[in-house]
Design brief:
Helices cover about 5% and strands about 45% of the residues. It is built from 3 helices and 20 strands.
Length: about 300
Amino acid sequence: MPPSHWIKLMASAVCSVLVTCAQASSVPGDEGIRQPVDGGRGGFGLGFEFDLSKLFGQQGLDPELTTSGPRTPPAFRMHALDIRGFVRGGWPLVLAWTAAAGTRLELIATAQGVAPYRTALTFNAPPPGKPHIVVLRLPERFGEQPIPGNISLRAQAAEGAERAFELRGIGAGPLAVGSVAIDDVSVAPTQISLRERRPAFYGFHSKSDFQRAAVEFLRVTQTNDQFELAQVRHIKVEQAVTRDAWIGRNPALAWDGKDGAGRDSFGPHLLQVRAWTTAQGDWVVAWSERPVVVAP
């Protein structure tokens, strides 16, 4: 199976938009609601907060998730991804993704003591426009309060072979929706030279109020036909992430092309943004559309 257009571009460290259309298909025995929505700007917020730890103590509350936000693996391949974050019965789960036509993406949501929720999304044809946005509804069996859970994504071709896909954003909770509450994740310029000592500037836009946020730069490497993303730099976002805020404009945010140990990190990198609330449990993870290439 030939690689998708996006994978070819990643191999040459030059990305363009691969846009396709997804159709949700149910998995027998599950009752999830799948509602496609537009990719336009929107969103909404809640006018109140409450402290989950005060409400029900430590039961069901993961201090690591509250403090450090949703977790992605330190390294993962482009056909599979597991994200740990809070889940709750009735919560929306939003997904923005692209892939080669015919790609089947299986999503499984799990939590301790709860029967897994499974559903599948299939790309049919690539229309013009933005990545397809799908909103799912977590079953009520996940409970009335946010609990730690895991969202597992696996992509396959029609014949069952592993196939890479591009995830632009994913989130859970009312504040994560509209379409994905963190968007316009970008890095410029698309190539920097460490010899010239000019940094890459990065930023993103928020459609909701989040109490905390962090960014990671992920280096993209290729082994045979497999592409892997590995975290090389973690940066805490100090600027307030509020509704309709543009993070990284004033003041500007810059990356020097080095990893967390101060070593040069050559090659293409994607920017990952994580934002979350410390009270309600809502969370979002989003990625840049284009990579930044670090050259000597």
